[in-house]
Write a structure and sequence with these properties.
heterodimer, A: 497 residues, mainly alpha, two-stranded antiparallel ribbon, two-stranded antiparallel sheet, 22 helices, 4% strand, B: 151 residues, 7 helices, extended
Chain lengths: 497, 151
């Protein structure tokens, strides 16, 4: 009897345990289906719309970067002709593409559209034509990592911009920052990795919070195209000048030592530097970076929708979304916070507006001295002064957020540039006097973009009509070829729910 | 427990506390494992019976454990050593109400039913790819082959 009871109890226990085991297996396989994505992302998938099937919230908010209705005191998410609002820029960038056309940046969605439309890229009617190298595409599209992986990095840098028109059709998107398997943040542009190596750092050591800024730093940085890279002389190799430091002086020194110049100014014959947008570098010198705040914390704040917390991918000015961005730390009135930002921007702008006028005048005054027969030795120090002053001015304005990201550093840069250019203008005045010229140098009308563009000898109507032909005939063809190529790639659906 | 997991990975506690830091007692090791076994059997039973509720709520023994664990880490925020010396019942007064009576969103948020979770990649190491490097494989290879190319 006792044995029977023992037997029955054991049998019951074994049965229940078996039931549990089966159940666990069953539920485990069930879980695999309950939370699975809709499509399989294969290889480097440049189309956001495919990623969007798996991550609708992130995708839909990212699509909002096409919004052009936001306006702040100086910025906008829409179209703003910067040459119209600050016409001196035409003189500062004479001889360089930016004097033709320079607009405030729009959202990521417009990256490819805008680079096709700008006068700076010219009107290449056939592959291999046009003023710009293929390197210009690097930061515009998710097709870039795909193309780089197909043909190699240095090959990618060794073409003309017009060569890849049909290859690069998707604007900046998911694949630029995310690993398709794990969704972890990833670096897809070699320049940032190489810059870290040059500084003796390993980017793989970056924490998740640092990555929330570093993915942006793949593009939102100062860079140049290195044409002297040993063994890669045909390439215009995208390089960040960070080897000796990211601040304005060290980068200036780096360029001087490399004897690099973006172009030679036709008025003052100065070998010039064009600062791109040192957003990451300048932000690093501000108080928010010091507190460990990342780009995404303010520009892509967290949001909840239907109980799900996710990162809002509508990347843009935090001023458009103060409640979700600033309020996380600063529980103050919206208008107070916005006023704080505007105050910094207005005060810095006061300095840069004066500074750019002074630099423009220096170019024209130097041109006068050259006209009167000044020689190279007499001009050397003056040109150095103009080069450095304009570089520093550009460094402070080209990063559109500089005045807020690091107001103190930006104002220091503006002060140093103002000092440089005024010292230089004293030298120019001396030089002019020694050449027998003591009158004020006649200046063009600084209030009109068109007058100044004519003054430096640009034929804008001609450029515009060539551009229109290009936009009407070439770009639709590029798009058609690109779409045809993409339609070859199938989308693997895993679940339909 | 997908919603519980996902809400925790999106919270600040993700950096400092894992499930067991809050949900099993830490006053002594025997108690820890006794509670763990008891809780585990209870979970296994519910799981086997397919009796999981849409919204999971903590039961009384669990509430006590969680509260003790809140206090364990946040002792200095909730009690004051000086006050403790001259106010009778200071510690009890400061710790007898559950923390989440006010801090309702900590750390799982308010909405945490099964329906609040979409397809989200589980950031568990066990299930993620073996290559957790920041640089994708193709780029690593391209850059390496470029470097090794004779100039």
């Amino acid at each position: 009897m006792k044995n029977w009871i023992l037997f029955l109890v054991t049998a019951a226990a074994a049965f229940l345990l078996g039931l549990l085991a089966v159940n666990i297996f069953e539920r485990k396989s069930e879980a695999k289906y309950a939370y699975q994505p809709k499509v399989q992302l294969e290889g480097i998938e440049p189309r956001d719309s495919v990623w969007g099937l798996n991550y609708p919230r992130q995708y839909q908010s990212y699509q909002k970067t096409q919004d052009t209705t936001f306006h702040s005191m100086f910025g906008t998410s829409g179209h703003k002709d910067m040459l119209e609002s600050d016409p001196e820029l035409v003189i500062l960038w004479a001889g360089y593409g930016f004097s033709k056309d320079y607009n405030a940046p729009k959202g990521h969605f417009w990256a490819v559209d805008d680079i096709n439309k700008t006068l700076r890229t010219g009107a290449p009617m056939a592959p291999g034509e046009g003023p710009m190298p293929s390197t210009c595409w690097t930061c515009k599209s998710t097709d870039v990592p795909r193309l780089m992986s197909e043909i190699g990095v240095s090959e990618f840098y060794s073409h003309k911009w017009s060569d890849f028109g049909s290859q690069v059709i998707n604007p900046i998107g998911c694949a630029d920052c995310h690993n398709p398997e794990t969704m972890k943040l990833t670096i897809t542009r070699p320049a940032l990795i190489e810059a870290f190596e040059a500084m003796g750092k390993d980017i793989n050591q970056a924490s998740h919070q640092e990555m929330r800024s570093l993915v942006c730093a793949q593009c939102h940085v100062e860079y140049y195209f290195d044409k002297k890279k040993p063994g890669l002389e045909n390439a215009q190799y995208l390089t960040f000048p960070w080897k000796d430091g990211m601040d304005v002086e060290n980068v200036e020194k780096y360029y001087d030592e490399a004897q690099f110049s973006d172009w030679t100014h036709p008025l003052s014959k100065t070998p010039m530097l064009k600062a791109q947008h040192p957003d990451y570098e300048i932000y690093q010198m501000g108080v928010h970076a010091k507190r460990g705040v990342s780009c995404a914390d303010c520009h892509m704040p967290y949001q909840t929708e239907g109980g799900q917390k996710f990162t809002n991918h509508h990347i843009g000015s935090p001023l458009a979304n103060v409640e979700n961005s600033c309020f996380v730390c600063h529980r103050e009135k919206v208008e107070d916070l916005v006023t704080d930002v505007y105050e910094r921007q207005r005060k810095i702008k006061e300095g840069t507006t004066k500074l750019q006028r002074l630099i423009a005048m220096a170019h024209i005054e130097t041109a006068k001295a050259i006209e009167l027969g000044a020689n190279e030795t007499q001009l050397a120090a003056i040109q150095q002064g103009i080069r450095h002053a304009q570089w520093r001015w550009d460094y402070s304005v080209a990063s559109h957020g500089a005045a807020f990201h690091a107001p103190l550093e930006t104002s220091r840069i503006v002060t140093s540039a103002t000092d440089l250019i005024q010292e230089t203008r004293i030298e120019i005045t001396r030089l002019l006097a020694s050449l027998g010229y003591t009158q004020p140098v006649p200046m063009p009308d600084f209030s009109s973009k068109e007058t100044l563009q004519a003054y430096i000898g640009l034929d804008i109507p001609k450029e515009k009509s060539a551009k229109q032909t290009f936009l009407d005939q070439v770009v639709p063809q590029w798009l058609k070829e690109g779409k045809a190529r993409e339609s070859q790639k199938s989308i693997k659906t895993i679940s339909s729910n | 427990m997908q919603p519980q997991y996902i809400t925790w990975t999106h919270s600040s506690h993700r950096e400092v506390a894992s499930c067991n830091d809050c949900h099993v007692p830490h006053n002594n090791i025997a108690n820890k494992y006794f509670f763990k076994a008891k809780d585990g059997l209870y979970h296994a039973t519910v799981f086997t019976m397919r009796a999981e509720p849409q919204v999971i709520r903590a039961r009384q023994p669990s509430i006590e454990v969680i509260q003790a664990n809140c206090v364990r880490c946040h002792q200095d925020q909730v009690t004051d050593a000086k006050m403790d010396a001259f106010v009778a019942d200071h510690t009890a007064n400061r710790t007898d109400r559950t923390c989440w009576e006010c801090h309702r969103d900590v750390p799982h948020g308010r909405v945490r039913s099964l329906s609040s979770v979409g397809a989200q990649i589980e950031p568990i190491k066990e299930y993620s790819s073996s290559d957790l490097s920041v640089i994708p494989g193709w780029l690593k290879e391209t850059m390496k082959s470029q470097k090794s190319k004779p100039n």
